[in-house]
Amino acid sequence: MDLRHRFPGMDPWLEDRVLWPGVHDALVVHLAETLTSALAPRYVARPGRRMVLEIPDRQAVPDVAVLEHKRGAAAASEFAADPSMTLVFDALEVDETYVEILTLRPARKVVAIIELLSHANKRSGTDSRQKYLRKQQEVLATEAHLVEIDLLRAGEPTVAIPGNHLASLPAHDYRVVVRRATARDRAEVYPIPLRHRLPRFPVPLLHPDPDAVVDLQGLLVRVYEAGAYALECGYARPADPPLSREDAAWAQTRIRGGGRKGRR
């Protein structure tokens, strides 16, 4: 089977709630490795973690359920297990990963935070979203730069841009936002339509060092192909969230064609 990445930009089937956590963590690891290779020995990039409670996307179930068993011949046997009380947890503790860029000399200092959004970050009322927004504001109140990568069409807008400014951007499906510590009154925004290549975006460092440049498309292709995601994407079913009729037809031509022909 052809395992090559099929789209000029983001593959919308990777947004699947089952697949995305693995894609997310692989992107974080590869991003940290790529930046460290480019920036050492002045800086290093390391994956960071925060613990959040995540509620699975499924029908609500009781917090506690008592299982009743019928007493058949097997149940009456001395080898049968006794009835138990089963605890069903709605919320799971999960790690969310991001990238920190740090100086090594003269002192270890956080220079930039790169966040890759998750479904829970964009879902109203979740512990993950609340903690993410709190961390976002904490970073903006420091001397660290903030970069946010949103490759998910579902959910509430979460990047550090006021809603009225976000609405003024051209129509797009994904976005990268760069908030420099030296210019908090502005944001560098990359609005990304589905059919376009993911951008090369800057990661600010300390003055007078030049920005590092990240090839987001190259990272995504590397993760997709190294992880053989072509085997798991389930292209026979519609993307979730659904694409428009026009985009769905375009996507099927990309899937049937395979590979990178015509990449912009």
Overview of the molecule:
- There is one protein chain.
- The chain is α+β, with helices and mostly antiparallel strands and 264 residues long.
- The protein has five helices and ten strands.
- A six-stranded mixed β-sheet has the order 1-4-5-6-7-8.
- α1 crosses α4.
- It is globular.
- The relative contact order is 0.20.
- About 6% of the residues have low confidence.
Keywords:
single chain, 264 residues, alpha+beta, 6-stranded mixed sheet, 24% strand, globular
Largest sheet at a glance? Answer: 6 strands, mixed
Number of strands: 10
What is the total number of structural domains? 1
**Which residues sit in consecutive blocks of at least 5 with pLDDT less than 50?**
58-74
Helix content: 10-25%
Number of helices: 5
Strand line-up of the largest beta sheet = 1-4-5-6-7-8
Spell out the blueprint of helices and strands:
Blueprint: H1 20-39, E1 43-54, E2 64-66, E3 85-87, E4 92-103, E5 109-116, H2 127-140, E6 145-150, H3 163-167, E7 174-179, E8 188-192, E9 200-203, E10 212-215, H4 216-226, H5 245-257
Parallel strand pairs: 5-6
Antiparallel strand pairs: 1-4, 2-3, 4-5, 6-7, 7-8, 9-10
Helix pairs in contact: 1-4
